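haha ok so turns out i had the wrong file open the whole time. this is the CORRECT one, sorry everyone. sequence first:
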Amino acid sequence: MITNSVVKGSPPFVGARPFDIGDDRIFFGRDREIEELSALWRGRRLTLLHGAAGVGKTSLVCAGLMPKLRAEGGRVLPLGHVWRRNVFPTAAFPEQNAFTLALLSSWSPDEPPARVAGLSVLTFLRRHSSKDRFGLPVRTFAAIDQADLLFRGPASGERQRRRFLDQLVEALDEEPDLHLLLVAREEHPEELRALRARMKDGTGTAYALRVFDRSAAVEAVRRPLAARGHEIDAETAGSLVDELRTIRTPRSMTPRRIPAVAPALLQLVCERLWAPLTEEPGLFAERLAANVDQVIADFCGEALATVAAECGVAPARLAAWFRDAFAGPDGTGVTVERARAEMPESVLRAVEDLHLVRLGRRAGTRLYELHHPRMIEPLRSSRDLPGRARSPDASERLRAAERALCEGSTELARYHAEAVIRACAGKDLRLQAEAERLLGNITYEQGRADVAAEHYRESARLFEVLQDARPVGMLLAALGRLLMGHSAAESVRELRTAANRLPNDLVIQTALAQALWQAGQTRGALAMLDAVLTRDGDTLEALRARGEILADLGKAEPALRDLRRVDHQDRPSTRAARMLAEISCRLGGGPQTAAPALRPDGARGTTGDRGGSSVSAAASREDGHDLAAVVEEAAESGPVLLRVARAHMLRGEAEDAAELASRAVTAGCPPLPPHMRDEAYRLRTAGVPDGG
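then structure:
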C-alpha cells in the first residue's frame, strides 16, 4: 500500500532524460552494476562501458559511479564529451583539434576555452595533476560520454579524430595515474576494441550494460518514491513492472512475459503516470497497469511528430514508415541499410535518441528494432500517429543544433539555430546571441567566412547590449582571425579592439601577434609573443606561433626550442616549420642556415653554407616522405608550401622547390603574407632551368 497523502519535494522520476549528477538520491536498481563497474574503473587504466541507446549508461556514470568514487575520496573529473558546446566562436581557435578542445573544456567547465586551447590531453592532465598529503600522485578518474561520436562524424574530421585518439593512447601510456572510462553505444565495437589494443600495457577491459531484470526494475520504482517521502509496497511496484514485461499480439491468444524491462521505458511510464498526481499519490497504484498502453502510444505519437518537425519530414510519411517497419505483423524491425535508404540519417539518429528504436543485431545482420517489444501493441492499436509535436524550448533546440553540428548535419544544425533566433527575438537576448554565434560557427565550418562574420558581428552586438565583455572580446578575436588572410590591417584593428576588451587574455594577444606577422610587422609580432611567454611560458599557441615565425626567419635553433615543446604533429603548418628548422640545422649545423631567410624587417637574408654532404640518404628519404605528407594535408596553404619549398631547396632539389613555391604564390587558404612573396618568387625563379 501507499502511505503519505501529499507529494513531497521534486518528482521521484526523471522521465526520458538521463539522470544527472544531482539525481543520485533517486537513482536505484543498479547496485550490482555500480559495484562491478567502479571496481573495474579503479583497477584498470581503460574501461569501456557499452550498451544500447536508452539502457542507462550516462545515468549510471553520473548518478551512480561518480558519486560513489567521490564519496570514497577519489579525484573524479566532470563528465567529458567530444562534441563542442556553443561557448566560443570556432574561428577564434581556427586550428585547434575540435575533439580535444571539446573534451578539455568539459573536464574544466569553470575555465574559459582559452585556458585549454592548444593543450594535448596528456599536457592537460599533467597540469591538473595533484598529490595527496604524503606527496604521492592522486589517481584521476575521467570519463568520456558518447564516445561513439568519434566514429560516426563527417569524413572531413577524420584527421582530427585520428589525432585525438592518438592523444588518448598517449595519455594512457604516459600518465600512470589516469583511469579512463569510455561510454559508448554498441555501434562500433571493432573501433573501440582497436583503441583498447593500442595501449602498451594492455589492461583495458569492457563492461556491457544490460536492461533491468524484474527485481532491479521493482527497486527503480519503489526506492525513488521512498526517497521523496512515499512508500509503495512491492506488490504494487511489481504490477507495473510485470505489465511492462507483458507482450500482447493479435497472433497469440496468450500474452507472453519477457524477463527484462528497458530503464528508459520504465522511467518514461512512471514519470508520466506520476506527474498529474499532486494531492492524491494513492491514485498512482490504480493508474499503473490501466494506462500503460495509452502512455506509450502518446509518447510515440509526440516523439514522431517532434522528429518530423525538427528534421523536415512529412509527419504522415514518418508515421507510416515507422508503423510499417516496427509495428508490422512480427514487429521485427528494419535493416540498417534499408532504413538509411528510406529515411535521412538525421531522422534515424533522432528516433534512436528519443528511445523509439535501438540498434540491434540478428543472425549477423545489423538492424533497427523497437526500443522495447512492449511498445508494439500500443503502436498497432493507436490511431493518433503522429501526435502533437512537443515544442522544445529554445535552450533544448540550441543543444540539438550543437549535437547536429558535431555529427556533420550542418543543415539540421542551421535549422535549429535559426528556430532559436525566431523564438527568442526581442525576448531572450542571451539565447539569441548564442544562436547567432552558433550560426557563425556553422557557416565558418562550411567555408563561408563572409557569412560567418555577419553572424559573429550580430552576436557581438547582442552580447554588448547584455554588457558581457568576455564573449564580445572572443567574437572580435574571431572576426580578426577571419580577416587575417584577406586584410592584414583590418585584422590587426579588430584584434587590437579585442585585446582592449580582454587585456589579460593571452590567446587574443597571441592572435594579434600572428596578425602583426601577417601584416609584415615582424618585430612587433615577436615582441608581443615574447611578452605573452614572459607572463606564461607554457602558452602553447604562443610557442607555436613564435617557433613558426623563427623558422621562417631562418633562426633554426631557437625555432626548434619552441617547436619541440608543442604537438607539432597536430598541424601541417607546425610540422612544416619544424622540418624546415631541423633540415636547416642538420645541413648547416647552425641557427642561421635556412636559405634565404627573411630578416625581421621583411627583407631577404643571405644563404648560408648548406653543407649538403652531411645529410644521410636515410634522413633524406625520411624527410621526403614527411614533406610530401605535409603538402598533401595542406595543399592550399601558402606558408606551408613555402616552408616545404625552402626545405627542398636546402637539400638541393631546386625544381621541387620551384614547383612548390609557384603553388605557394597562388594558394589562398591561407595566402602568403605579402612580405613572404619575394622569397617565393626567388625560389620559383631559382628552380627554372636555363632557357626555361
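The chain has a mean pLDDT of 83.
again sry for the mixup
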